[in-house]
Amino acid sequence: MRAGYVMLAAGDRPDEAKLRVLLVTPAARGLGLGSRLVEGALAFARAAGYRRVTLWTTDNLVSARRIYQHFGFALTHEEPHQGFGHDLVGQTWTLDLRDADADAESDSDSAGAGTGPEL
Quick one: residue 116, left, alpha or beta (phi over 0 = left, psi -120 to 50 = alpha)? Predict the structure, then answer.
């Protein structure tokens, strides 16, 4: 039984990937699956040599937006969008993988020796 999927595609530039689809079935929502799927897609993007990941979504997809923000995506563009029978706001989000990698290294460098994670 499939509970969700994510799709990563080549972007408009050679160093750019696009996160195209993130879907988690209603029965599997709230279990962290969406975050694990995005984490896997970003790991693949890094391993494949992409430097940036973009995605397009609509402003009403609040749970998905929280996942994107958690991984460091920043809102780079939005405009009104008529779709799915509703007036929506289309949004483009961007993650610079070089910045995200530098932030992760900085976080690990600033961790005290012999200390555990904060809870």
Answer: beta
Task: Please enumerate in sequence order all residues whose Cβ is within 8 A of that of 66, keeping only pairs 6 or more positions apart, or say none.
Answer: none
Beta bridge partners of 21: 7
Report pLDDT digits (tens) over 26-59. 999 999 999 999 999 999 999 999 999 999 999 9
* Lookup: tokens for 48: 């494949």
> How far is C-alpha 8 from the chain's CA centre?
10
Confidence of residue 83 (pLDDT cuts 50, 70, 90): confident
Q: Are the C-beta atoms of 91 and 75 separated by less than 8 Å? A: yes
Q: Say how far apart CA 114 and CA 93 lie, in whole Å.
A: 37
Coil, strand or helix: which one is 115? coil
pLDDT for the residue 112: 44
